[in-house]
Specification:
Elements lengths: L6 E6 L6 E5 L6 H4 L27 H13 L19
């Protein structure tokens, strides 16, 4: 299939409200393929680790930086490779 058939333009961005483009079939699927969603270090509602404490498990600094970049530029970026990945503990 021609990728041009999958791209929708003029879609308003979630964070900026500016028009942009989306790869339509992939929208909403990023949570399924993004390693962050399955990582024990991913705590998106907690603050960044204090300076000098990169191993603070409250929040992943990589995920936080990527989130801030995505918000600033109204993009969606699933992570498919990460050296800091730790599998989430299974909930009982």
């Amino acid at each position: 299939m021609d990728h041009r058939q999958l791209i929708h333009t003029g879609v308003l961005g979630k964070h900026t409200g500016e028009p942009g483009a989306e790869m339509q079939p992939a929208m909403g699927a990023h949570r399924e393929v993004c390693l962050c969603q399955h990582c024990g270090n991913f705590e998106p509602n907690k603050p960044n680790p204090p300076a000098g404490k990169p191993d603070n498990p409250d929040n992943c600094p990589i995920a936080q930086a990527l989130y801030e970049l995505c918000v600033a530029h109204d993009t969606v970026t699933p992570v498919v490779r990460c050296a800091a990945f730790v599998e989430k503990a299974k909930q009982a």
